[in-house]
Design a protein that fits this description.
The chain is α/β, with parallel strands linked by helices. The strands form 2 sheets. The protein has a 6-stranded mixed sheet with strand order 6-7-8-3-9-10, with helices on both faces. It has a 4-stranded antiparallel sheet with strand order 2-1-4-5. Helix 2 packs across helix 3 and helix 6 crosses helix 7.
Length: 253
Protein backbone atom coordinates (compact mmCIF):
# COMPACT_ATOMS: atom_id res chain seq x y z
CA UNK A 1 0.00 0.00 0.00
CA UNK A 2 1.31 3.44 -0.92
CA UNK A 3 0.96 6.33 1.54
CA UNK A 4 1.14 10.00 0.62
CA UNK A 5 0.94 13.30 2.48
CA UNK A 6 0.08 16.36 0.40
CA UNK A 7 0.50 19.81 1.98
CA UNK A 8 -0.62 18.18 5.21
CA UNK A 9 -0.80 20.42 8.30
CA UNK A 10 -2.27 20.08 11.79
CA UNK A 11 -3.02 22.83 14.32
CA UNK A 12 -4.51 22.53 17.80
CA UNK A 13 -6.40 25.05 19.92
CA UNK A 14 -4.33 26.38 22.79
CA UNK A 15 -5.55 27.29 26.31
CA UNK A 16 -6.47 30.79 25.11
CA UNK A 17 -8.24 29.53 22.02
CA UNK A 18 -5.35 30.44 19.74
CA UNK A 19 -4.37 28.01 17.00
CA UNK A 20 -1.04 26.33 17.68
CA UNK A 21 0.62 24.88 14.57
CA UNK A 22 1.84 21.35 15.36
CA UNK A 23 2.77 19.93 11.99
CA UNK A 24 3.49 20.98 8.44
CA UNK A 25 2.68 21.71 5.84
CA UNK A 26 4.53 18.59 4.74
CA UNK A 27 4.42 16.49 1.58
CA UNK A 28 6.02 13.12 0.84
CA UNK A 29 5.23 9.69 -0.58
CA UNK A 30 6.00 6.25 0.84
CA UNK A 31 6.02 3.58 -1.86
CA UNK A 32 4.45 0.16 -1.48
CA UNK A 33 6.62 -2.15 0.68
CA UNK A 34 8.99 0.68 1.64
CA UNK A 35 10.44 1.13 5.14
CA UNK A 36 10.67 4.82 6.12
CA UNK A 37 11.88 6.29 9.42
CA UNK A 38 10.84 9.72 10.71
CA UNK A 39 13.47 11.65 12.66
CA UNK A 40 13.37 15.14 14.10
CA UNK A 41 13.48 17.23 17.29
CA UNK A 42 11.09 16.39 20.11
CA UNK A 43 7.69 17.97 19.63
CA UNK A 44 8.03 18.43 15.87
CA UNK A 45 4.83 16.52 15.10
CA UNK A 46 6.09 13.02 14.27
CA UNK A 47 3.47 11.29 16.42
CA UNK A 48 0.79 13.63 15.11
CA UNK A 49 1.75 12.62 11.57
CA UNK A 50 1.48 8.93 12.44
CA UNK A 51 -2.03 9.49 13.81
CA UNK A 52 -3.10 11.29 10.66
CA UNK A 53 -1.76 8.49 8.46
CA UNK A 54 -3.56 5.95 10.65
CA UNK A 55 -6.84 7.81 10.20
CA UNK A 56 -7.09 8.58 13.93
CA UNK A 57 -6.76 12.35 13.42
CA UNK A 58 -7.93 14.58 10.60
CA UNK A 59 -5.52 17.23 9.29
CA UNK A 60 -6.37 20.92 9.56
CA UNK A 61 -5.36 21.45 5.92
CA UNK A 62 -4.08 19.23 3.14
CA UNK A 63 -4.69 15.51 3.08
CA UNK A 64 -3.24 12.04 3.59
CA UNK A 65 -3.79 9.34 0.99
CA UNK A 66 -3.59 5.56 0.89
CA UNK A 67 -3.36 4.22 -2.65
CA UNK A 68 -4.67 7.62 -3.83
CA UNK A 69 -7.79 7.50 -1.62
CA UNK A 70 -8.10 10.20 1.03
CA UNK A 71 -7.73 8.80 4.55
CA UNK A 72 -10.87 9.90 6.41
CA UNK A 73 -11.28 7.03 8.88
CA UNK A 74 -9.10 4.39 10.58
CA UNK A 75 -7.00 2.89 7.83
CA UNK A 76 -8.10 -0.59 6.80
CA UNK A 77 -5.20 -3.02 6.50
CA UNK A 78 -2.98 -1.09 8.89
CA UNK A 79 -1.79 -1.58 12.45
CA UNK A 80 -0.25 0.91 14.84
CA UNK A 81 2.17 0.33 17.73
CA UNK A 82 2.90 2.97 20.37
CA UNK A 83 5.67 3.26 22.94
CA UNK A 84 3.16 2.04 25.53
CA UNK A 85 2.44 -1.60 24.67
CA UNK A 86 -1.21 -1.27 25.82
CA UNK A 87 -1.30 -4.93 26.83
CA UNK A 88 -4.33 -6.05 28.80
CA UNK A 89 -2.97 -7.04 32.26
CA UNK A 90 -5.66 -9.69 32.83
CA UNK A 91 -4.87 -11.54 29.59
CA UNK A 92 -1.99 -13.94 29.04
CA UNK A 93 0.61 -13.52 26.28
CA UNK A 94 -1.41 -15.96 24.17
CA UNK A 95 -4.66 -14.05 24.68
CA UNK A 96 -3.09 -10.62 24.20
CA UNK A 97 -1.65 -11.58 20.82
CA UNK A 98 -4.88 -13.36 19.84
CA UNK A 99 -7.06 -10.34 20.63
CA UNK A 100 -7.37 -9.03 17.03
CA UNK A 101 -8.34 -12.50 15.84
CA UNK A 102 -10.94 -12.76 18.61
CA UNK A 103 -12.40 -9.40 17.61
CA UNK A 104 -12.51 -10.63 14.00
CA UNK A 105 -14.66 -13.57 15.10
CA UNK A 106 -12.11 -16.37 14.73
CA UNK A 107 -12.83 -19.44 16.87
CA UNK A 108 -10.82 -20.00 20.05
CA UNK A 109 -9.08 -23.13 18.75
CA UNK A 110 -8.17 -21.52 15.43
CA UNK A 111 -6.81 -18.30 16.91
CA UNK A 112 -4.77 -20.19 19.53
CA UNK A 113 -3.33 -22.41 16.80
CA UNK A 114 -2.43 -19.35 14.73
CA UNK A 115 -0.73 -17.56 17.63
CA UNK A 116 1.18 -20.65 18.79
CA UNK A 117 2.75 -20.91 15.35
CA UNK A 118 3.91 -17.30 15.69
CA UNK A 119 5.32 -17.49 19.23
CA UNK A 120 8.68 -19.09 18.26
CA UNK A 121 9.34 -16.24 15.82
CA UNK A 122 8.99 -13.87 18.78
CA UNK A 123 11.00 -16.05 21.20
CA UNK A 124 7.90 -16.26 23.39
CA UNK A 125 7.01 -19.94 23.06
CA UNK A 126 7.80 -20.57 26.76
CA UNK A 127 5.68 -17.63 27.95
CA UNK A 128 2.26 -18.14 26.40
CA UNK A 129 0.62 -18.43 29.83
CA UNK A 130 2.52 -15.48 31.36
CA UNK A 131 0.79 -12.20 32.19
CA UNK A 132 2.16 -8.74 31.25
CA UNK A 133 3.33 -8.05 34.82
CA UNK A 134 5.63 -11.07 34.55
CA UNK A 135 7.34 -9.86 31.36
CA UNK A 136 10.39 -7.72 30.77
CA UNK A 137 10.04 -4.55 28.70
CA UNK A 138 11.51 -6.26 25.65
CA UNK A 139 9.20 -9.24 25.97
CA UNK A 140 6.17 -6.97 26.34
CA UNK A 141 7.14 -5.17 23.12
CA UNK A 142 7.48 -8.52 21.35
CA UNK A 143 3.93 -9.31 22.46
CA UNK A 144 2.79 -5.96 21.05
CA UNK A 145 4.57 -6.73 17.76
CA UNK A 146 2.98 -10.18 17.73
CA UNK A 147 -0.44 -8.59 18.04
CA UNK A 148 0.37 -6.62 14.89
CA UNK A 149 1.90 -9.50 12.94
CA UNK A 150 -1.05 -11.80 13.58
CA UNK A 151 -3.31 -9.31 11.79
CA UNK A 152 -1.12 -9.54 8.65
CA UNK A 153 -1.48 -5.78 8.00
CA UNK A 154 -0.18 -4.24 4.82
CA UNK A 155 0.86 -1.05 6.65
CA UNK A 156 2.71 -0.82 9.97
CA UNK A 157 2.78 2.54 11.76
CA UNK A 158 5.25 2.40 14.65
CA UNK A 159 5.44 5.33 17.05
CA UNK A 160 8.70 4.93 19.01
CA UNK A 161 7.85 1.36 20.09
CA UNK A 162 11.36 0.72 21.48
CA UNK A 163 12.00 4.09 23.15
CA UNK A 164 11.64 2.89 26.74
CA UNK A 165 14.00 -0.08 26.33
CA UNK A 166 17.70 -0.38 27.14
CA UNK A 167 20.13 -0.13 24.24
CA UNK A 168 20.84 -3.86 23.84
CA UNK A 169 17.17 -4.87 24.02
CA UNK A 170 16.32 -2.12 21.57
CA UNK A 171 18.95 -3.36 19.11
CA UNK A 172 17.72 -6.93 19.48
CA UNK A 173 14.14 -5.94 18.72
CA UNK A 174 15.21 -3.77 15.78
CA UNK A 175 16.97 -6.76 14.24
CA UNK A 176 13.93 -8.92 15.03
CA UNK A 177 11.76 -6.43 13.16
CA UNK A 178 14.05 -6.73 10.13
CA UNK A 179 13.88 -10.53 10.30
CA UNK A 180 10.10 -10.56 10.55
CA UNK A 181 9.79 -8.16 7.64
CA UNK A 182 11.86 -10.42 5.40
CA UNK A 183 9.15 -13.09 5.79
CA UNK A 184 6.38 -10.82 4.46
CA UNK A 185 7.10 -7.31 3.24
CA UNK A 186 4.94 -4.42 4.41
CA UNK A 187 4.88 -0.66 4.12
CA UNK A 188 6.39 0.54 7.40
CA UNK A 189 6.74 4.02 8.90
CA UNK A 190 8.72 4.14 12.14
CA UNK A 191 9.08 7.19 14.39
CA UNK A 192 12.38 7.13 16.27
CA UNK A 193 14.92 9.41 17.93
CA UNK A 194 17.72 6.89 17.39
CA UNK A 195 19.78 7.71 14.28
CA UNK A 196 21.59 4.35 14.25
CA UNK A 197 18.26 2.55 14.47
CA UNK A 198 16.85 4.57 11.58
CA UNK A 199 19.83 3.91 9.30
CA UNK A 200 19.94 0.22 10.20
CA UNK A 201 16.25 -0.34 9.45
CA UNK A 202 15.08 2.08 6.79
CA UNK A 203 15.08 2.42 3.03
CA UNK A 204 14.68 6.19 3.56
CA UNK A 205 14.97 8.57 6.50
CA UNK A 206 12.77 11.66 6.53
CA UNK A 207 14.23 14.43 8.70
CA UNK A 208 11.74 16.95 10.08
CA UNK A 209 12.22 20.50 11.32
CA UNK A 210 11.28 21.94 14.69
CA UNK A 211 7.57 22.46 15.36
CA UNK A 212 5.61 22.78 13.22
CA UNK A 213 7.40 19.87 11.58
CA UNK A 214 8.26 20.27 7.92
CA UNK A 215 10.36 18.09 5.66
CA UNK A 216 14.02 19.11 5.92
CA UNK A 217 15.59 16.20 4.06
CA UNK A 218 14.68 12.85 2.54
CA UNK A 219 17.77 10.65 2.81
CA UNK A 220 18.02 7.42 0.84
CA UNK A 221 19.64 4.60 2.81
CA UNK A 222 21.37 2.64 0.06
CA UNK A 223 22.99 0.04 2.31
CA UNK A 224 22.68 -3.59 1.19
CA UNK A 225 20.18 -5.99 2.72
CA UNK A 226 19.99 -8.13 4.75
CA UNK A 227 21.46 -5.88 7.42
CA UNK A 228 23.16 -6.76 10.67
CA UNK A 229 24.36 -5.03 13.84
CA UNK A 230 27.96 -5.21 12.60
CA UNK A 231 27.10 -2.70 9.85
CA UNK A 232 27.04 0.17 12.36
CA UNK A 233 30.87 0.17 12.34
CA UNK A 234 31.21 0.38 8.56
CA UNK A 235 32.27 3.55 6.80
CA UNK A 236 29.12 3.92 4.66
CA UNK A 237 26.93 3.51 7.73
CA UNK A 238 28.88 6.10 9.72
CA UNK A 239 28.74 8.58 6.84
CA UNK A 240 24.96 8.29 6.69
CA UNK A 241 24.51 8.68 10.45
CA UNK A 242 26.75 11.76 10.44
CA UNK A 243 24.80 13.30 7.56
CA UNK A 244 21.49 12.79 9.37
CA UNK A 245 22.88 13.94 12.73
CA UNK A 246 24.14 17.15 11.13
CA UNK A 247 20.69 17.77 9.60
CA UNK A 248 19.01 17.31 12.98
CA UNK A 249 21.56 19.49 14.78
CA UNK A 250 20.83 22.29 12.30
CA UNK A 251 17.21 22.21 13.49
CA UNK A 252 18.29 22.59 17.13
CA UNK A 253 20.48 25.61 16.43
Amino acid sequence: MKLRAENLAVSFHGPNGDLLPALGPISFTVADDQFVCLLGPSGCGKSTLIRVLAGLLQPSTGAAFCDEEVIKRPLTGSAIVFQDTNLMPWRTVLDNIALPLEIAGMSRSERYSTVRKLLPQLNLEDFERAYPAELSGGMAQRVALGRVIVQAPQVWLLDEPFAALDALTRETLSLELLRLRRRARQTIILVTHDINEAVLLADRVIVMSRRPGRLVADVEIDLPRPRSAEMIYQRDFLQLTKKIRDLIEEQRA
